Amino acid sequence: MVDENPAADAHDVIRVRGARENNLKNVDLDVPKRRLTVFTGVSGSGKSSLVFGTIAAESQRLINETYPTFVQQFMGQLSRPDVDALENLSATIRVDQERMAANARSTVGTATDVHAMLRVLFSRIGQPHVGSSQAFSFNVPSISGAGAVVIKTGARKGQKERRSFEITGGMCPDCEGLGQVSDIDLDQLFDKSLSLNAGAISVPGYTADGWMVRVFSESGFFDGDKPIQDFTEQERHDFLYKEQTKVRIASTNMTYEGLVPKITKSMLQKDRDALQPHIRAFVDRAVTFVACPACAGTRLNEGARSSRIAGVNIADAAAMQITDLAAWVRTIEDPSVAPLVQGLSQTLDAFVHIGLGYLSLDRASGTLSGGEAQRTKMIRHLGSSLSDITYVFDEPTAGLHPHDIQRMNETLEQLRDKGNTVLVVEHKPEVIEIADHVVDLGPRAGRDGGTVQYEGDVAGLRRSDTLTGRFLDHRAQLKPTVRSAAGAMPIRDARQHNLRGVDVDVPRGVLTVVTGVAGSGKSSLIHGNLPAFDDVVVVDQSVIKGSRRSSPATYTGILDAVRSAFAKANGVKPALFSANSEGACVACKGLGVIVTELGFQSTVETVCELCGGTGFDDDVLEYTLNGRNISEVLAMSVAEAADFLTTGPAVAVLGRLKDVGLGYITLGQSLNTLSGGERQRLKLAISMAKSGAVYVLDEPTTGLHLADVDNLLDLLDRLVDAGNTVVVIEHHQAVMAHADWIIDLGPGAGHDGGTVVFEGTPADLVAARSTLTGEHLARYVGA
C-alpha cells in the first residue's frame, strides 16, 4: 500500500534559523519551495545577505564538498555563512548582475554556447567543407608539425618513426582571433623636428639628460644632435625597431633596443589599470586599436570565411542581430541537421523572449551592462529539463523598459511552473505583484535593518504598515511646470552602433531623461557623444578599482581628514591612524583578520587575537578624538559620522553621502560589498561638489527602494537648481514623470531602433501616446 503522506513530501520549505550574515539579526524564516518568492526592502536592509550571502552561498558550499578533494582545490573556496541552521536546501543557481569577464576572446556567442552550435552546423553542411567545428573557432589556431619519435615499448621498441600532425583552426593569424590590432601613433612618441639631445622623445621618463635617452643618442647608430626628420631610412629603422644588441656607453656595456619594442615591453604589454596615471594617459594617447585588416574584424581566417550556407558564412551569421539570425536559421531545411537547427532556434528564441534580440553573437561579453549580463546568463536555464532547483535572481528587471518587464515576469513564472524554487531580490511593483510569497526586510538599512518586517502574500503586504507596503501603489505625478533650458549641447550625425545619423539638442540647465526600450541606442547616444563636451561628469555603476583594504572612507578622502583631526588632537603623526601604514597591527598587517590557506579546504579567516579585528596597534587605539578612537570612528555609519564630525573638510562629503541615500553604509566597510547602485551613488557624492557641470547618470534607480526614488528625485532637483545640467538614462516611470525634457529613442531595439521618436516635456509625451514609452508613462500616471 502506498503511503499517502510520505516523509519525503514534508520538506516543502527552506528553513532558515539564526541568520546573522552582515547586518541580519538572527533571522528565522521559512521560504516556500516550488514557489516564486520576492524579497523586498530598502537598499542595505539585508535582502542580498539573506538570499545570496546565506541561502545561495551555503547551497553552493555543500555542493562543492561533494566533489573529490582533487577537484575542490581548483574551485573557489566558500566559507560557511553565519547562520545556526539551514534545512531543506536544493541545488542553487545564482543569476546575478556581476559583469561578465572582460576577456577579449569572450563574446555573447561563446558565453552562451550558441557559437558552438553554429560551428557544428557549418562544419556539417557548409560549402566548401573546410574541416571540423574547430575550423570555425576563432580561438583555435591552424598548426601543423612533423618529426621523428622513438617507440618506447612493445616489439618495435627502440625503432624510430616519422609522425606528423595537423590541426585546422579558424583563428585569424594576423590578430590571433582578437579582431583588432594595435597601432602605435609615432607622433606621440617623439617630435621629429627635434634631435634626441634636444628632448625629441616625449615618452614619460625619457628625459634628454637621462640614461634612457643616452643609450639612444650615444649608441653610434645615428647622431644625437641630428633632428629625427633628417634621419636616413636605416637610421630611422635603428632608432625605432632595431633588435636588442650590445653597445658601449661611457665605458659601460648596455643593451640597445629600438624605441617601439622597448616601450611595448615596458608599458604597452602591461595591465593598463596597474600603470601609474601619467603613464596610463600616455598609453591611451599613443596606442589605437583598429579592426584587423586581414579578417575585417571577424576574428576568423580566410578558410572559415569561405564556407557558406545559402550564401552566408559564420562571420555573417555572428554579426546578424539575433532576431534576424533566428529567422535565417529557420530557413535551413537539411534533414541531416534538423535536431541541431531545432536546438539553435529554441536558444535564439529565448534571447528574443528575454529582451535581448537586439544583440549579435559577436558582441564582446565584457561590453554588456549588468542587466544584459544577467539576462544572458539566464539563457542556458530557460530550456533546461532540471526541476526542484533553486534559482536566485538579483533585480532581473534592471535595464528593462516597462514594455519588456512583462516578458521577464513570464520567464520567472515559467521557471517556477517547472517545479523550481525562484527567489528574486526586486524593487519593481510589477514583479512584486506576481509573487506567490513576499518577504520584506527592514525597517531601514544597515544597522537599522536586518529583521523580517513582513512575510505573506501581496495583498497582505499592501495592508501592512511596512515601508514597502505603503509605497507599493505610490506613483510620482507629472510636474505642473517644467524648467526652461539655458542653451543646448548639440549632437549631430551620431552613428555609434545602431544610431542612424541622429541629430538632437540636449538642453542645458534642466533635468533631461533619455529613455527607450533596451537596445534602442540610449547609451550609444549619450556616452558616445556627451563626454566630448567640457565639464561632463559621467557617473556609472562600473566596479571601483581597489583592494580589500579600500573603503568609503579611503575612496572619498574622508579618512585623510579624520587622520589629520586625530593627529592634531593628539600631537602625533597622521600615519599612525592608517591601518596601511605605521598604525597597522603587526600580526594581521591592518586587515583585522588572519587568513589561513588550507589547500583544497575552505580558506579560514579568524579575527586577529592581537588587535581584536580593529586592524590597528593597541597603542594607536589609546589616542581619541572627542572620546572615540580611530577604530570606533571607522565603524560608524555615514549618518553617525555626520553627527560626530561637525567641523573640517569631511563634513561636506558626509553630507553629500547622506544626500545620495548612503547614510547607512559604514566608513570602514569594504568597497567590494557595495552593489552597483551604491557604487554609482558613491561616485555621485564625490562629484557633486562641482557647479555648472553636466552630470550623466546611467539608471540611478537601480537597487533603490520605492521610498528612496522620491529622495533621488529631490537630489536631482537640487543638482539642477544649483546650476548644473543633469542627463539621466532611465526606465523608471517616476523619473520620466519628474523630468523637464524627455528624449525617447526607438521605436524598437537594435536595427529597429537608433532614431529619436520623441522630444518634449513628459506632459506632451503622455498626451501624444505615440511611443511605447508614452503608453507606459500615461498608464503609470493614470492619464
How does this structure look, described?
The chain is an alpha/beta fold. The strands form nine sheets. The protein has a six-stranded mixed beta sheet, with helices on both faces. α14 links the parallel β14 and β15. α4 packs antiparallel against α12, α11 packs antiparallel against α12 and α22 packs antiparallel against α23. It is globular, with a radius of gyration of 30 Å.
> Given the structure, what is the number of helices?
28
Overall outline: globular
Q: Give the rounded overall mean pLDDT.
A: 90
Assembly annotation? single chain
**Percent of sequence in beta strands:** 15-25%
Give the biggest sheet.
Answer: 6 strands, mixed
Number of strands: 27
Classify the helix fraction into a percent range.
25-40%
Widest β-sheet, arrangement of strands: 5-14-15-3-16-17
Q: What structural class do helix, strand and pairing data support? A: alpha/beta
Pick out the low-confidence regions.
none
Distance between the termini: 62 Å
Rg over CA atoms:
30 Å
